[in-house]
Design a protein that fits this description.
Elements lengths: L28 H21 L1 H28 L8 H25 L4 H18 L8 H13 L10 H27 L4 H22 L5 H26 L4 H8 L2 H13 L5 H22 L2
């Protein structure tokens, strides 16, 4: 994982805009590590807890509702100057917002069909490929191969292949979306001050998903359901945004990248604890391979 890889969290999680020229706080590394772990737990356990919402409103409906609440909350905090942006800025946030909406819908569609740990592992292949392909055709391409073997082990429970083809394809789509999201986030981060680009892209994502999500969710909306969705929107993605951005000011970006490599493992734990999705020994080994491949790519990137 190179500098571009650590600029985005899982599931379109935290769109990070690190400042590599700013030295991390020498006394805050431990706090930064804690914030990273809290962020990853928030993302993955929030995704697991979204299962009832996905079942009630459908993946597209759940995507729309989460984006509406998250974008509204962030817009209130950031107050983006909508009328002041240039044509190039609008193009960048329109592209990022559209990708964010499609990526999130694909990820929710995947976890509605296959175990969370498997979905996140497949999803993780996208940014891992972005990082390793940045080195050209070299031995570093072995990292995605190791991760791919890990995904295959995750997809087999010792008796049969788990999940289904649509779920696998949706997870692959989310991975492609995440890879594009990373590249677009880097561009938006340079074009806007602070969190304005992130806020605008979330607003665009909410608008893009409205024609599809409203039709899926509106007939089933209840007051208690809206309250629950609002809470989940704060859990994912707003809390991870704050935690990861503060963490990056307290610790080296290389350390941050290594920590974020634990995401597939945390997803597997969340799937087991919240969704009661068990894992065999070979699936645990597969998760370890994905994590190891990500850590290996990160360490190599820091030596470039």
């Amino acid at each position: 994982m190179d500098q571009t890889l650590i600029e985005s969290g899982t599931d379109g999680g935290a769109a990070l805009m690190p400042h590599p020229d700013v030295a991390p706080s020498s006394g805050g590394i431990a706090a930064g590590v804690l914030m990273c772990v809290m962020s990853m737990c928030s993302i993955q356990f929030g995704s697991a807890l979204s299962s009832p919402i996905i079942n009630a409103y459908g993946p597209v409906g759940a995507t729309w509702l989460r984006l509406v609440f998250a974008s509204a909350a962030l817009a209130i905090i950031v107050r983006p100057k909508i009328m002041s942006y240039s044509r190039s800025q609008w193009i960048s946030v329109l592209a990022l917002g559209t990708v964010s909406a499609l990526m999130t819908a694909s990820f929710f569609s995947a976890i509605a069909r296959i175990p969370l740990g498997l979905a996140v592992a497949i999803d993780f292949l996208g940014p891992l490929l972005v990082a390793t392909l940045g080195f050209g055709l070299s031995r570093q391409l072995l990292w995605p191969v190791f991760a791919g073997i890990g995904v295959l082990l995750l997809a087999y429970d010792g008796e049969e292949w788990i999940g289904n083809l649509p779920g696998i394809l949706f997870a692959c789509g989310a991975g492609v979306g995440w890879a594009c999201y990373i590249l677009l986030t880097k561009k938006v981060g340079k074009a806007f001050k602070g969190l304005e680009g992130l806020s605008m892209s979330l607003l665009v994502a909410a608008v893009v998903s409205t024609p599809f999500g409203f039709a899926s969710a509106a007939p089933h909306l209840t007051a208690s359901g809206l309250f629950e969705i609002a809470g989940l929107a704060l859990l994912v993605p707003l809390l991870p945004y704050v935690l990861e951005m503060v963490a990056l000011r307290r610790m080296p970006t290389s350390s941050f990248g290594i920590l974020m490599s634990l995401e597939p493992a945390i997803a597997a734990v969340a799937g087991f604890v919240i969704l009661l999705q068990p894992m065999t020994a070979s699936q645990m080994f597969g998760t370890a391979l994905v994590v190891t491949a990500s850590i290996g790519a990160t360490i190599f990137a820091t030596k470039r």
